[in-house]
Amino acid sequence: MRTPLILASISPRRRQLLSERGIDFEIVPSNAPETPAPGESPRDFAQRAAREKVVEVARRYPDRFILGADTVVTLDGIIFGKPMDRDDARRMLRSLSGHRHFVLTAVALRHPAGRVEELLVETEVEFRELTEEEIEDYVEGGEPFDKAGAYAIQGAAGRFVRAVRGSYSNVIGLPIEEVALLLQARRPVQARVAE
User: Fold this and answer.
1) What would the pLDDT profile of 154-175 be if each residue is shown by its tens digit?
2) Residues noted as catalytic
């Protein structure tokens, strides 16, 4: 029996995307911090965070293939992480209202030999103008609180979106097509992708 890939994340969205693609995996949450360094660009932060997640989990499981990812929402070079509270969620949604922003997901795959392969996928998302009532209803519904940028495109916030340019699954939290290709290209014995 083959040992499954480790997903260094507790994200239910990443778990669902991998499962739907037929990829065998088990979840081992990473304890790596997810805080941008002063002056760190959104791209650099996402890549560093994904890499640190797999390295941290590899300390416990050095002989396994480990997949980590980090998703950030960015507008004008500013990182929009997960909102701290309702006011923070409202602030983010007001900022995104009527604007184009970018969703960046960095992915890191650590091999048992210690080599780490990385990729970064960028998707442009355009929001229509949101009313204060729409923002308030969305925040009070509770959906924003564990989501980068304070929204879930696959949830109630889908109605806020005017356009998506690039990978839709990337906005959910994992660019599944690119991840599947990364796993298939390396043919790791621990990761099986259904045909």
Assistant:
1) 999 999 999 999 999 999 999 9
2) 70
